[in-house]
Amino acid sequence: MISRESLPAILLTSTVALVLNILPLPGWLPVIRPAFLVLAVLYWSTMAPFVAGMALGFFGGLALDVFQGSLLGEHALALSFLTYLALRLNLLTRAKPIFEQSLYVLVALVAYELLLWLIDGWTGHALSSPLRWVHTVVGALIWPLVVGVLGRFHTTR
Amino acid sequence: MAGFGTSIGRPIYGRGPSPGLRFTVYALLSLTLMNLDQRAHWSQRLRYGLEAVAYPVQVAVNSPLAAWHWLTDSFSTRGMLRIENQRLHDQVLALQLAQLRQQALEQENAQLRELHARMPPLVKKWIVAEVIGVDSGTLRQRLIINRGAREGVAVNQPVLDGAGIIGQVAHVGPWSAEVILITDPEHAIPVQVQRNGLRTIAVGSGNAEELLLPYLAVNSDVRGGDVLLSSGLGGVFPAGYPVGRISGVHRESNQLLAQVRAEPTAHIDRARELLLVEFEPGNPAAPPTTEALAAAASPEPAAPAPASAAPPDGSGAPAARGGAARAKRKDAAAKP
Questions:
Q1: How far is CA A155 from the centre of its chain?
Q2: What is the pLDDT of residue B190?
Q3: In 3-state terms, what secondary structure has residue A13?
Q4: For residue B204, what are the contacts with CB-CB under 8 A and spacing of at least 6?
Q5: Of B76, B140, B122, B100, which is closest to residue B237 (Cα–Cα)?
Q6: What is the per-residue pLDDT for B7?
Q7: What chain A residue is nearest to B14 in terms of C-alpha separation?
Q8: Which of A53, A71, B30, B153 lies 20 to 30 Å (CA to CA) from residue B240?
Q9: Which of A2, A16, A22 is best to mutate for the B interface (most B CBs within 10 A)?
């Protein structure tokens, strides 16, 4: 069990992930940019479910809404849903081999993007592009890296 | 939802409500927010506050780029500065020449319209803003600028650079504003082909170097290289400002519509400084005010002439001369 002391680490890494998410990038890089904040929230709600709770998902999503100018609550709902899944299934997923975890991450990211896509459609932003799904694959591919980096931020075990 | 929980997801030492209950609460909160943001303008104040909070972070996130620009600017050599100075000098001369001609043309135009009063200048006020954030994807083409409501920026205000129209203001925070670019797929701007006056609508493509003109018939008279000017319809943009240049026309005999692409005139992906312009409502080229649009749409022939060509004499000053009325203009051009 991870002790409470890692809360600052969780907030720090989530903030860095948010900055990476909204950093202006040139050319085609934004298309392949993984959803860093979603990956960080998934990691922390799987690995530290009693420290990083639903609030991290909700407020992280709200921050994405504010910075990306999307409908307020859109990313908040999608990310809360992912956090809920991660919290519910963390005993199932946390002990799995890393590549199997990547597969779960892919499913989670597709569910996240699907939810955003549905909300976009319902609220009249029907324009879509197949490129919006690219980040789900990229996110699943870099999951081992995310685990490797964020794993260093556990203070006590 | 909290009821069906198995023992798997439950906290082992129960701290607070179960994740299911908390998810339900947050989901309801999100749905309420979305509903408010979508339907009511109630959440505008909330968003205004949130954008105020977001502003320092946006500045910080953009600071590496800004630092790089500052560094390259401060290390530019004397020779480069001289060359740039010379270029700017030439540009000023050319612009002065064009300005001379423009004054003559405006006078001539005023005479043609039999306006005895001097025409008011088109541009009432302009603010220079710097780009502090870029959001460019295939679905969103937006910029964050460092001027907001405190400096008089209003929603739907046209944004230009030295070469043409860039977009319009979508959201305003106290110190920052979000600009929706003309290349955003959710943006449409009414345009006119300069050569023959053909009117159509240019829609964003999601690519900063391309606009689409999806509503032109196969037999319409457009050619590569034609200049597109804003037509002044739609109530947001003024008439006669360059928007783009036709880069490709593709016609297929079995299709009703031609596939026409244009390249924006403004330096959409490179501009660092933008102009936010407020127009004098009295000038014929200015976008019509909400009141004028409503008057033109009403069946009573209160204004027989088109609203945009109302005589701008000083005595009969229109009621909507203030900046506040302009902010409430219809979002007509933002949604195709």
A1: 21
A2: 93
A3: helix
A4: B141, B181, B182, B183, B184, B185, B186, B187, B188, B211, B212
A5: B122
A6: 42
A7: A50
A8: B153
A9: A22
Q: Residue B34: its chain A contacts at CB < 8 A?
A: 71-74, 77, 119, 123
Instruction: Select from B34, B57, B133 the Cβ nearest to the Cβ of A72.
Output: B34
Report the pLDDT value the prediction gives residue B314, as an integer from 0 to 100: 37
Contact call for A88 and B8, based on CB within 8 A: yes
Name the helix (H) or strand (E) containing B200. strand B199-204
Angstrom distance (rounded) from CA B218 to CA B230? 22
**Per-residue pLDDT tens for B226-250?**
999 998 888 888 888 899 999 989 8
Nearest-angstrom CA–CA distance, B49 and B45: 6
The answer, for A50 touching chain B at a CB cutoff of 8 Å, is yes
Count other Cβ atoms within 10 Å, centred on residue B304.
Answer: 5
A-B C-beta contacts closer than 8 Å: 118
Q: What is the CA radius of gyration of chain B?
A: 24
Low-confidence spans in chain B with pLDDT less than 70: 1-17, 40-44, 111, 113-121, 137, 282, 284, 288-336
Give the per-residue SS3 of B247-263.
EEEECCCCCCECEEEEE
pLDDT value of residue B311:
38
- The residue type of B303 is A
Calculate the CA B133 to chain-centre distance. Answer: 15
**pTM of the predicted model, to two decimals?**
0.65
Helix axes A36-47, A98-122, angle to 10 degrees: 120
What's the pLDDT score for residue A79? 94
Whose tokens are 């001027």? That residue is B147
A120 CA to centre of own chain? 19
Who contacts B124 (Cβ-Cβ below 8 Å, separation ≥6)?
B278, B279, B280
Q: How far apart are the C-alpha atoms of A48 and B282, rounded to whole Å?
A: 63
Write the ipTM: 0.77
Q: Which tokens in the block code for residue B90?
A: 């030439």
By the 8 A CB rule, do B1 and B24 touch?
yes
Bridge-based pairing of strands B123-136 and B158-161 is: unpaired
DSSP H helices, chain B, are 19-39, 44-74, 78-112, 290-297, 323-327
Q: For position B335, what pLDDT does the model report?
A: 40
